[in-house]
Amino acid sequence: MEVLTIMERGKFQLFKIILGVLSCALLMAMSASADVTLPKPTTNGGEGIFDLIQRRASGARDNFPKGAISDEELSTILWAATGINRGRSDKAWTIPTAGGLPPYVEVYAVKNDGVYLYDWKAHALTTVSDKNALGDITNDSFVKESPVVLILVSDTANLGAMGRLNEGNALAYIATGAMSQNIYLAADTLGISTRYMVSMNTDGVKRELKLTSDGTPLCVLPLGKR
Ligand SMILES: Cc1cc2nc3c(=O)[nH]c(=O)nc-3n(C[C@H](O)[C@H](O)[C@H](O)COP(=O)(O)O)c2cc1C
Asked: N or C of the chain: less Cβ packing under 10 Å?
């Protein structure tokens, strides 16, 4: 009887080890696409929301700041744009979405060392290319000189059945408004300027971001530390 109990315990331990290995493999597979880790974002504090709204402004075209953006600052701005909030990874983001769908507008970050796609699930970046694409995405010299340019892209494939109701990409534009306002306010409290811009080199953006026919670039937001 005692021997049987020991064998049973052994089997249970083996089962736990197999389960652990499988869980690790599953987690690795889930995060395989995101290959650049981001530091933890700042998710509290900052200036008062009314102070930030009171002085909300776009960075000036003729005097746009060019200061470097740290990884911590980029992490915080990306989280503000479309990260997970309320401690829930299933249905809670920093912006409202139609029908509670996962965010359907994607955020790309173009830097001089490459092009990256923000993975809100992993709060990490996926490398699209290691090329400096800043010269190909815009004709505006102050954007080309920005240390980071965010590009918001509507991907109708993310809208599922909702895509059929989405004449004129209205749902994506609404999300873009909420996301860019969060980006303005979060950036400002970090001493960073941005500017919502529809002017871009659309062909260059599609090429450098490797967009499929489902992807429509909606705006670019250069970032620069004041
Ligand atoms: C839908 C939209 C499109 C815009 N497109 C551009 C653009 O292509 N180029 C640009 O320099 N600014 C662009 N802007 C920024 C506006 O010119 C700017 O917000 C406006 O001049 C008001 O300035 P403020 O944001 O400081 O209040 C755009 C803003 C919005 C809302």
From this structure: N
